[in-house]
Design brief:
CATH topology of the largest domain: Outer membrane efflux proteins (OEP)
CATH architecture of the largest domain: Up-down Bundle
Largest sheet: 4 strands, antiparallel
Low-confidence stretches: 1-19
Strand content: 15-25%
CATH class of the largest domain: Mainly Alpha
CATH superfamily of the largest domain: Outer membrane efflux proteins (OEP)
Mean pLDDT: 85
Radius of gyration: 44 Å
Strand order of the largest sheet: 1-4-5-6
Number of strands: 6
Distance between the termini: 30 Å
Structural class: alpha+beta
Number of helices: 10
């Protein structure tokens, strides 16, 4: 009856269960590992950069205000062939043939210009939407990375607890062998046992001691790993108690289609769709409004001519003290229409279409593989649950066999080798049970991963 109830609970992967699979301490350590992860921090920073870039696209509609100005001094030798002009009184001919002028002067100007994009040809609209889908895809991939960290931390919990359980088994065996050795020494003194039996027990004790040394080393490594993952001190990690028990599921409607990898591919396809629309609308004109406030001043300018006055014979020069304008306004609307860009847009459309098709192929391939993986893990989980029941039974049989072996050896019904063999079988049966529980928990995590359910929120519920 007891086994039937256990089988019901273990095999009911879709039955609502109230048992918690993780303790509050384990959940806290998982949270710490997610907070400490440098790869997650960099992924979040990458998302912040994408958010800024997407926001910058939409900000193209925000008016811009620029100011520019400059000062210049210029000088030039001008050769000009102007139609001859005869003065009416003196009859002097001006501009007879080619004339040479020397010109120089100062120029100062300043402009304050405001511009506002009114219509981007839908480039900003589709570019912004493509950016949002790109961010959405990266967020889904971030969830996948979180699930990998969670799985690694829980796996470390289980390995630590498996070693702790192994340690308990070895210590119990050491105590039993120590008592057996005391009894054998007493029996040797009374001629009821041989030194061979004592040596066999000593060899078994040394074997257990060797296993404990290896176990302690592996345990220190796992504590160090968990310390690195969570940022906790090793001394604190060593104080924690972890649980190693079969993983039980609560009912949910999620399947492989909820995997973050698939969601990311769907978002990527949408991003390419918007990029494709953006490229296809390249022919639409862009319209912008502008307004300019200007100041200019041409001063201390002079043009020297090769001519002289008829009476004083003084050179004829043209001087300009100042020629300035302020305020000078210029307000209007302009457009830019790229009628033909040398087939660049067509090339971009073809390239984007191919890239979109590649992602669609990846999505279909992933769906097939993830569906198969989900079914495979479900079968493996059912198998592990049934194997746990068998290992539980093996553990009970080995425990009963050990008790019988101890009693039979003391009665002289079996030899020392058979007694030690029963001890070894018991150790293996206990360890095999917990190894199977650990494997079942690993398979459970894979099953959660296969449906995209391995998140901190789901583990808390």
């Amino acid at each position: 009856m007891k086994n039937s109830i256990l089988l019901y609970f273990l095999l009911a992967a879709t039955t609502v269960l109230s048992q918690e699979n993780l303790s509050s301490t384990e959940l806290e350590l998982i949270q710490l590992s997610l907070q400490k992860s440098y790869s997650l921090k960099n992924a979040n920073n990458d998302l912040l950069i994408d958010s800024i870039e997407t926001r910058a696209i939409k900000q193209n509609f925000i008016p811009t205000l620029t100011m520019n100005g400059g000062y210049a001094y210029g000088s030039a030798n001008i050769n000009a062939d102007i139609p001859t002009f005869q003065l009416p009184i003196s009859g002097t001919e001006l501009f007879d043939g080619e004339s040479q002028f020397d010109a120089k002067g100062h120029f100062l100007n300043a402009n304050l210009t405001a511009k506002a994009l009114l219509f981007s040809g839908l480039q900003v609209n589709y570019g912004s939407k493509a950016g949002k889908e790109k961010i959405k895809a990266k967020n889904f991939l971030l969830e996948r990375e979180k699930s990998e960290i969670i799985k690694d931390v829980i796996d470390t919990f289980d390995k630590i607890e498996l070693l702790n359980r192994s340690k308990i088994v070895l210590i119990e065996s050491e105590k039993r062998l120590s008592k057996e050795k005391i009894r054998v020494n007493s029996a040797i003194e009374n001629g009821l046992a041989t030194p061979f039996e004592r040596e066999k027990i000593s060899a078994a004790e040394l074997n257990l001691a060797s296993k404990r040394i290896e176990l302690e080393g592996n345990l220190r490594l796992l504590h160090l790993k968990l310390s690195v993952l969570t940022g906790q001190e090793i001394g604190q990690i060593e104080k924690y108690d972890f649980e190693l028990k079969p993983w039980l599921f609560e009912q949910n409607d999620q399947s492989y289609s909820n995997r973050p990898e698939l969601e990311a591919l769907r978002a990527t396809i949408e991003a390419y769709e918007y990029k494709l629309k953006m490229n296809k609308n390249h022919f639409l004109p862009k319209v912008a409004a502008f307004a300019t406030l200007s100041y200019f001043n041409l001063f201390d300018s002079q043009i020297k001519t090769p001519y002289e006055t008829p009476i004083s014979e003084q050179p004829i020069n043209l001087d300009l003290n100042s020629f300035q304008g302020f305020p000078a306004y210029l307000v209007g609307v302009g457009f830019e229409w790229e009628i033909f860009n040398g087939l660049k847009s067509n090339n971009e459309i073809q390239k984007t279409s191919i890239e979109k098709n590649m992602v669609e192929n990846k999505k279909m391939d992933a769906e097939e593989k993830l569906k198969l993986f989900e079914e495979k893990v479900k079968i493996e989980f059912d198998v592990k649950n049934q194997q746990i029941l068998l290992k539980e039974k093996e553990k009970e049989v080995a425990s009963n066999a050990l008790r019988l072996a101890i009693a039979s050896y003391r009665e002289g019904l079996i030899n020392i080798s058979e007694r030690l063999e029963a001890e070894t079988d018991y150790q293996e049966a206990i360890l095999d049970y917990y190894k199977m529980v650990s494997m079942q928990r690993q398979t459970a995590l894979e099953l959660l991963t296969s449906t995209g359910s391995l998140t901190l929120n789901n583990l808390n519920n």
